[in-house]
Design brief:
DNA primase DNAg catalytic core, N-terminal domain; 16 strands; 4 domains; single chain; DNA Primase, Chain A; globular; 5-stranded mixed beta sheet; alpha+beta; about 50% helix; 5-stranded antiparallel beta sheet; Dna Topoisomerase Vi A Subunit, Chain: A, domain 2
């Protein structure tokens, strides 16, 4: 992920705009409000599309963009200053724009090659050890196909097996240390004869390859064979290509199933993930044995906003979601235990606009044992997952005397702060009513209870009322990848832009412009491509290198890498670019038409002062749709 993409993923555009004093309300999947950039406060003509992270004013401004454009316009900044401001807010260090040296790229590729070779090495060791293979097949119920698909292996006992094997094959000791396969024990400064020691990090363990969301090898997870060994699970250390808080095990294989199911399920064990995938439940992932991080939730948010935490049946697992609550902290704070902070998750749920639920396993069974017993039972458990607050209430009440006033007070003191963290007032009222019923107390006594924990809440948004609430709003299709591809082709072959513009003009359409790109960094890079084509003093690539703002150097490198294997003939590329830009323009026009219909309905409720403006805009976009459809038909005929 590039620095710019990371900034975009870490900042919720709804939060950013709300903090600027714009009161927003739901309008389908989108939000509307009064534009902060002009004085007309009669009709909320400012629209936010959270799925694409973009905004637009249909009023006096008639502008739009992403988070960068919003900050640039709000604060009067250029792109570089806006980027730095948002990077500081997101906690992202801006370092990508220092050009990665060929030496660094070679180092990272070498590390991944070493780890890929390690998979083969550990796999060979596994098939040489019948006891471990039998354990995986019979005890864990894994098929040979699953063992092969997920690349399982075995690290033999001993301190120098991997060290000797890989150094004999040309890898240096430092390569092995950098990849996390070797551990260094520093010399004891208090012992005169003590020396530093290097030895295999993984010994007598089942080896599980861990890949990032793109399928690139990053590290290993290792499970004990001997129950007396500790810890139960051991991961690769932090390396240039492995960061525990930024990777979810199995996500490379689960991304498409997650999108298809519109739901992700998080379990605690790597082997549980494999068993569930084997049983046909492929929308399952696992953290790295540590607390679930916001970065990991953001990874999932790209595919779905519906996330279920499926916890292990032991006491720690059942109540892990309570971590962070005062009464549970001391009991739950064991090293190496997977932690789910209920308050933190609720804040993430609000910030990421997600739906987080909790499913618990019955009969002291782990997830892999559930599907071994009954595949359909797993489906029922996930379908019956409870919202976080409900799970916390049930967990705290389990086995307690709810007639005891002190017990009621303790439960209320822990649950009420969670309820107050919810961003939706209707949800807050609903959970207060549920808590009052469970504790058998008057709801008014709960609302008057003094909550000691700090309340962090996004400003409540009004519900949409009247006929406008029923107006269908077309969901925004993610266009980032299409824009990136088209821009990458034009950056690699800028001469195609001239031919593309001629084609568009033949169909009676305007030439390509920055407005065809929704994202500010794309607009900046396209401007450079456009300038290069419209000058004749320098060769295109040399001109672009000289004019390229440093803020988009990282983006340009990324796009060049994506189009490196491009071998399609220019005529075919031109046809493809034309089709994609026509589709992009049509999608954008359709979104605007639907949104303008909604605004017209809303304007009629308010008296109709701006109705004519919105009607004229809608007519313009409708005409554009007609022209685009005609152009697409002519392009297909050719």
């Amino acid at each position: 992920m590039s620095t710019l993409d990371e900034i975009k993923s870490r900042i919720d555009i709804v939060d950013l705009v709300s903090e600027a004093g714009v009161k927003l309300r739901h309008a389908g999947k989108n939000y509307t409000g009064f534009c902060p950039f002009h004085d007309n406060k009669h009709t909320p003509a400012f629209v936010i599309w959270p799925e694409s992270g973009t905004w637009r004013c249909f009023g006096q401004c008639n502008e739009g963009g992403d988070i960068f454009k919003f900050v640039m316009k709000r604060d009067g900044l250029d792109f570089k200053d806006a980027m730095q401001k948002l990077a500081l807010r997101a906690g992202v260090e801006i370092k990508e724009y220092q050009r990665e040296s060929p030496q660094q790229k070679e180092v990272y590729e070498n590390l991944r090659k070493l780890l890929e070779d390690a998979i083969i090495y550990y796999r060979t060791q596994l098939f040489a050890n019948k006891d471990i293979l039998t354990y995986l097949r019979e005890k864990r119920g894994l098929t040979d196909a699953s063992i092969e698909t997920f690349g399982l292996g075995f690290a033999p006992n001993g301190y120098d097996n991997a060290l000797r094997y890989f150094t004999q094959r040309g890898f240096s000791q430092q390569d092995l240390i950098d990849s996390g396969l070797l551990t260094v024990r520093e010399a004891d400064s208090q012992a005169p004869n003590s020396e530093s020691r290097v030895y295999d990090k993984f010994r007598n363990r089942i080896m599980i390859p861990i890949r990032d969301e793109n399928g690139k090898m990053a590290g290993f997870g290792a499970r004990i064979v001997d129950p007396n060994d500790i810890p139960k699970f051991l991961n690769s250390p932090e390396t240039p290509i492995f960061s525990k808080g930024r990777i979810l095990y199995g996500l490379d294989r689960a991304r498409k199933p997650i999108r298809a199911a519109d739901q992700a399920v998080i379990v605690e064990g790597y082997l549980d993930v494999i068993a569930l995938h084997q049983a046909g439940y492929e929308n399952v992932v696992s953290p790295m044995g540590t607390a679930l991080t916001e970065d990991q939730l953001r990874l999932l948010k790209k595919s779905t906003r519906r996330i279920v935490l499926a916890l292990d049946p032991d006491a720690a697992g059942q109540k892990a979601v309570l971590r962070g609550l005062d009464a549970a902290r001391s009991a739950m704070d064991r090293e190496g235990e997977l932690g789910f902070d209920a308050r933190g998750l609720l804040k993430n749920e609000a910030r990421l606009q997600a739906d987080l639920r909790v499913a618990t396993m019955p009969d002291d069974l782990d997830p892999d044992e559930i599907v071994a017993r009954d595949k359909e039972e797993w489906k029922r458990l996930i379908e019956n997952a409870k919202p976080i607050v409900t799970h916390v209430m049930d967990s705290l009440a389990a086995g307690q005397d709810l007639n005891d006033a002190k017990i009621k007070n303790q439960i209320a003191a822990q649950v009420l702060p969670l309820i107050e963290d919810l961003p939706n007032p209707l949800e807050r009222d609903t959970y207060r009513q549920a808590l009052s019923r469970m504790l058998k107390v008057d709801e008014r006594s709960l609302t008057s209870t003094q909550v000691q924990a700090p309340v962090v809440r996004r400003k409540p948004r009004e519900a949409v009322k009247g006929p406008a609430a029923e107006m269908p709003v077309v969901a925004v299709n993610p266009r980032l990848k299409i824009e990136s591809y088209c821009l990458g082709v034009l950056y690699r072959k800028p001469e195609l832009l001239y031919r593309l513009d001629r084609k568009l003009q033949e169909f009676g359409l305007s030439p390509l412009a920055v407005e065809d790109f929704e994202y500010t960094d794309h607009q900046l890079l396209f401007s450079v491509v456009s300038l290069a084509v419209r000058q004749d003093e320098k060769e295109h690539q040399n001109f672009m290198l000289g004019e390229l703002p440093e803020e988009v150097v990282g983006l340009s490198k990324e796009l060049l890498a994506q189009t490196e294997t491009l071998d399609t003939l220019d005529d075919k590329l031109l046809e493809e670019l034309l089709a994609r830009f026509l589709d992009l323009r049509r999608a954008h026009a359709m979104i605007n038409v639907n949104q303008l219909r909604f605004l017209q309905e809303d304007e009629q409720q308010q008296g109709g002062a701006n109705l004519k403006v919105y009607q004229e805009q809608a007519i313009q976009f409708t005409r554009l749709l007609h022209s685009l459809d005609q152009a697409k038909r002519k392009a297909v005929k050719r």
